[in-house]
Amino acid sequence: MIYICCLVNFKKKMGKSVQGFSKLTKLEKIDWLIKTFFNSDENIKSTLKQYWNSNKVLQNLHDDFIENTISNFYIPFAIAPNFLINEKEFTIPMAIEESSVVAAASLVAKFWRTRGGFKAKVISSTKIGQVHFMYEGDKQKLYDYFSIKKEALLAATKDITKNMQKRGGGILDIALRDKTEDLKNYYQLHVTFETADSMGANFINSCLEAIAKAFEKEDIQIVMSILSNYVPECLVHAEVSCNVEDLYAENSKELAEKFVQAIQIANAEPHRAVTHNKGIMNGIDAVVLATGNDFRAIEAGAHAYAARSGKYKSLTNAKIENGIFKFWIEIPLALGTVGGLTKLHPLSKLSLNLLGNPSAKELMEIIAVAGLAQNFAALRALTTTGIQKGHMKMHLTNIIKQLGASDEEKNFLIDYFEHKTVTHNAVVEAYNKLVKDK
Ligand code: MEV
């Protein structure tokens, strides 16, 4: 009996597998999809097709970013104006689906604009790649071999590093690291790079593979060669400061202290720190995405940095000293303004253009500011009115839209909920009553 059930399940599963899928045309892929998963429902095809771009060249460009593309997945692309960073004006592009992020960025930009704006500075800009290998022999012999071989390892990357060196980048150092205390027979070549205006992933990985090839011998077993997304030496600092009295309209000293306590709590309690940093990443990811950078790399590196002391903590900090409130962020950001998708995706290109075609270092500063601004908005709301007031306002408009309300009905509902608690049910009820009473 069990055997028959398994066989039926197996057949069901097999019915949904497919061979040579990547070779099918886009329409054939969609046909397979709707036949296999949606009971041949043609509405699914229309849903997918309505997001196709009518410009075939543009659509092809997007299709080719990845495999098996069947449509485009839109997320809003917005701008947050009025940022003053290092005395320069910026309108920051953001690609994000979360309703309150851009509004918060815009409000905070305006707020700090009248208080001296943001100051930002890149602390360091080096990146890391590693060749991981196993070696069972005599340690000293390995170190001797590395010393003799080091120049040849650098020479093995000459063709790859030539252009990068012209742009001010290249390999800064190769070190042999003994990791046998962490894992038996495990060593690595720890390579430090400067990649100028490119994020450098392809450059780093190509160099590492060339180094590994030149280093390999019978008793050295290369396991893998790959860049690290942990980049604590690709670090940027951004800050704001003002007189404590200028921070809030009323009770400024008490509220500023509460703001500082909110950060102390994040530093003391990882559950809070994760949410605190998530809010920072709302701002960071949105700009990273809009500028065609790799937000997963940024996320991974930022959270690892937040845990560098062995405890997961806040990426931001604040203090009050001699009547001055100071709030800052320090975050690793490995970004590029050339290469990858940055100039290939028309909207990334536009975003970089909007930012004045910054260098990678300038982009690090702008993006750190976007994160700091987001955290400022969140902590300010959390320690005063609570976060739901602003969130629910945006949520309310989304629910109203989903209900298909007219402009007149929308305005009525916004007024109606001005001083009431917004819940999905409450909005639906109010809307239904409004329609019924008409
Ligand atoms: C929501 O996306 C982000 C916040 O939860 C951040 C925070 O709590 O600091 C509001």
Descriptive report:
This protein is an alpha+beta fold and 438 residues long. It is 50% helix and 18% strand. It is built from 16 helices and 10 strands. A hairpin with a 2-residue loop joins strand 1 and strand 2. Helix 6 crosses helix 8, helix 10 packs across helix 13 and helix 14 crosses helix 16. It binds (R)-mevalonate. (R)-mevalonate (MEV) binds next to helix 10 and helix 13.
Q: How confident overall, as mean pLDDT?
A: 95
Q: List the uncertain runs.
A: none
Gap from first CA to last CA: 62 Å
Strand order of the largest sheet: 3-8-10-9
Structural class: alpha+beta
- Main β-sheet, in a few words? 4 strands, antiparallel
Helix content: 40-55%
Report strand %.
15-25%
* Bound heterogens, unique: (R)-mevalonate
**Number of extended strands:** 10
Number of helices: 16
The rough form would be described as globular
Radius of gyration, in Å, reads 27 Å
Taken in chain order, the helices and strands follow as HHHHEEHEEHHEEHEEHHHEEHHHHH
